[in-house]
Amino acid sequence: MAHNLYQLFFIHYHRGEYWEAHEVLEELWQSQRHNDFYHGLIQIAAIMHQLNRGKVRGARKLATSAIKYLSPFAPEKDGVLVDRVLDWLNLCLEVLPDGVEKLPPDDALLKEIPVCPLPDVREVNSN
User: Fold this and answer.
1) Of 33, 31, 58, nearest to 46 (Cα)?
2) Are 38 and 32 in contact (CB under 8 A)?
3) The CA-based dihedral angle spanning residues 97, 99, 101, 107, taken in that order and rounded to the nearest 10 degrees
4) Per residue in 53-68, pLDDT tens?
5) What's the pLDDT tens digit per position in 101-126?
């Protein structure tokens, strides 16, 4: 059975509560600082939060580091299809312009990036 905070991360994430998802998984990560998988997932939630605020530079920076954290866990870990997440991160880097600090949150470019494909809590519990 997955840790309660890990489960809560996915609940918040699928409600669109990206900052809250980030916070609950960071609490778990603080007790397991070596866990790069959790660190990468925290960054996914932070990217979604940044994208909702139009913060392009921050989202690009986080996407670059999240790739490094999550790549060793491909193709799958703990219910997360890491390959799909890595594809999404690369899409972010392709779509988001380099050298741009911020765009209006309703900018068409930001709408080209779908929500990162993370499993829901039922899929996480079944693993």
Assistant:
1) 58
2) yes
3) -20
4) 999 999 999 999 999 9
5) 999 999 998 999 999 999 988 788 76
